[in-house]
User: Fold these one by one.
Assistant:
Number 1:
Amino acid sequence: MGARGPGRTPLERRCEERLRELALPARRKMTIEEVCEHVGARRGRPLLVLPTALPTGSPHGLWVATDRNDYVFLEERLAPIHQHQVVLHEIGHLVCDHDTSPVLAAEVSRLLLPSLDPGLVRRVLGRGHTDSEAEIEAELVGSLIGRRLSSWTVCRDRPVPPEAHELVARLAVLGPPGHPGAED
Ligand SMILES: [Zn+2]
């Protein structure tokens, strides 16, 4: 993408600045777990990547912010290379502190909120909802972080907070968005 070249766009320069602010260790490559730990420590909020079976028709990745944690839910049936891309994209949104799209928030609230404490989910952002500059920025920042990765695995043995179990359970019983038979 020519990010190091002289012809960088203002957006590319801004994304590089985001990466610098993130202060990832420069001397070594990291695993995605280490990146999540690093980002979580800087934000003062644990960041967990949770592969799960998302409902048909929903985005392949969702960033869900609760009072205490940030979660990136990831469609577990995606090919590993695509999972990689989706997770980095969502972390890109998180690092850029992007606002949620009101349209998407309403859509995802329909999916997530009916049985949840409405106070639990603070914000939700999913992949593929708009073609805005924020999407391009998330993609660029994600790919810059991706260059620092040594390997790609999503650890499944990590303890999962109870609220995440609730979110996963909620996602698992859903049908396609907007389907009238999808209530529990
Ligand atoms: Zn996005």
Number 2:
Amino acid sequence: MTMRLFINGEERSAAVHPLTPLVDVIRDELLLTGTKSVCREGFCGACTVHIDGVPTMSCLLPVIAAEGKAVTTIEGVGGPGNMNAVQHALEEHDVVQCGMCFPGMVMSMTAYMERRPAAPRADIKAAMSGNICRCTGYERIIDALLSIAAKEDTTA
Ligand code: FES
Ligand code: FES
């Protein structure tokens, strides 16, 4: 069956079973391999994308549930040359280790920091709880995210 998706601002289609996990369509059919497929059980957050702006684990979502909605992957939120605030902060703080968790982390935290750019440390920590970093660099990631508000303060 042909599934039609609106992904990163473009219409794309894929001939797949409607119950195929969205992450598999994104990676294997549309070749947007920035989104990672790790636990495939809704546990690690590596597969996080935005569906109509809401962070969503794409390993748990059948592709048919994404039809007619705006899907954004890591390729759609910024990259080299046009990084968003979260990506900038993570790069400036040099926090990436193996990088496997980072696409999902960036998707979750981009949505969160847009809503709460001045969130305190404890709240950021709680917001990150759905994204597991096996390299355990959490404290530096939080420091990086806190710097977004600090930077806005000094430029206000
Ligand atoms: S791969 Fe989807 S939550 Fe881990
Ligand atoms: S940087 Fe390696 S899993 Fe997070």
